[in-house]
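can u do me a favor
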């Protein structure tokens, strides 16, 4: 397939690109470069790209593609809480417009990176699945769910959207994100010697390695149309539902000498959900997750050590998305809508598409 992948320079995108290329697909990226500098390595797979904000995409940009993989977004709750109106504009309005343009351009498949966080408020210990009522509670997961609601209406005989509700991602990526819960727990354990839990540790959270997310997207791209047409799929593995305190215990066991410490003001997190991933296993049996949390912690710990990372890398603008954007705003490189102010502020690498 010839695939347009938005957000190809991000945390998931830099892992997904080589996986899709190795499967024989032709890729063109689209990214504004907001997080291009959040890298742990210079070894990033380059592809032809449109260096632009996907809010500005035009119909001609979508001509000739078989599929769109839409990853680009303001990617977590802290960002969306800081920029609620821009989150709605980017994550919801521009994403629906992208799907509409793709449909008009006769793109056959549209894969949307949604989130298990749309299940939202605590559901006790019961498993939730794709038929469960969504209860999004933050600008981020509200925007994701609204896209699902609107884009599903575009499905027809020529346009097949699929909504992949990813569990909380973790693992090493060329474009590291230190705000993700498991990545962050390992970072504190490695740099400070204690596994710092910012809640009371009770919330449930399903986790999935970034490589396994990429394999799920590949499985959808290569599945028969009738299998994935207009489907919602939770992406993860049933055995990988953990309480935050359980994840902390795994980190403590792997990072020698570390101790668990709870934040003094930490309380119950309203985002608590256990997720059933049976549907993706039934529909796409070729999707076989290859990671579990313990292996992921070992991978993260080794990467942090081998790259000599320090605390400020994780809790500063290098790998912390919210601090990175604040720095770009403070240095006047971005305007209030999170657009580059002038072409000179764009990252050095220019479009080769």
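np, heres the sequence
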């Amino acid at each position: 397939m010839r695939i347009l992948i938005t957000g190809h320079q991000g945390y998931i995108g830099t892992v997904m690109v080589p996986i899709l290329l190795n499967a024989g697909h032709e890729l063109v990226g689209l990214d504004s470069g907001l997080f291009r500098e959040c890298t742990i390595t210079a070894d990033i797979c380059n592809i032809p790209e449109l260096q632009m904000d996907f809010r500005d995409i035009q119909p001609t940009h979508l001509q000739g593609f078989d599929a769109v993989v839409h990853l680009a977004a303001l990617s977590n709750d802290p960002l969306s809480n800081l920029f609620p109106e821009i989150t709605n504009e980017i994550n919801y309005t521009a994403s629906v417009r992208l799907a509409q343009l793709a449909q008009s351009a006769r793109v056959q498949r549209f894969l949307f990176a949604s989130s298990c966080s749309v299940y939202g408020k605590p559901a006790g210990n019961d498993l939730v699945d794709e038929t469960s009522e969504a209860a999004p509670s933050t600008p981020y997961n509200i925007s994701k769910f609204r896209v699902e609601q609107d884009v599903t209406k575009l499905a027809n005989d020529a346009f097949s959207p699929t909504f992949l509700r990813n569990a909380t991602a973790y693992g090493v990526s060329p474009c590291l994100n230190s705000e993700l819960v498991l990545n962050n727990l390992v970072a504190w354990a490695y740099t400070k010697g204690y596994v710092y839990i910012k809640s009371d540790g009770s919330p449930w959270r399903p986790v999935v390695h970034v490589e396994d997310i990429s394999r799920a997207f590949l499985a959808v791209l290569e599945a028969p149309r009738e299998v994935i047409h207009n489907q919602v799929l939770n992406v993860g593995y049933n055995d990988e539902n953990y309480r935050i305190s359980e994840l902390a215990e795994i980190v403590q066991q792997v990072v020698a000498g570390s101790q668990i410490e709870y934040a003094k003001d930490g309380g119950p997190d309203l985002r608590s959900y256990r997720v059933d991933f049976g549907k993706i296993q039934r529909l796409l049996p070729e999707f076989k997750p290859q990671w579990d949390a313990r292996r992921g912690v070992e991978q993260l710990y080794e990467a942090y050590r081998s790259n000599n990372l320090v605390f400020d890398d994780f809790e500063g603008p290098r790998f912390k998305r919210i601090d990175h954007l604040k720095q770009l705003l403070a240095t006047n490189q971005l305007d209030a809508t999170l657009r580059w102010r002038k072409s000179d502020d764009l990252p050095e690498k220019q479009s080769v598409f």
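Confidence is low (pLDDT under 50) at residues 348-353. hope that helps!!
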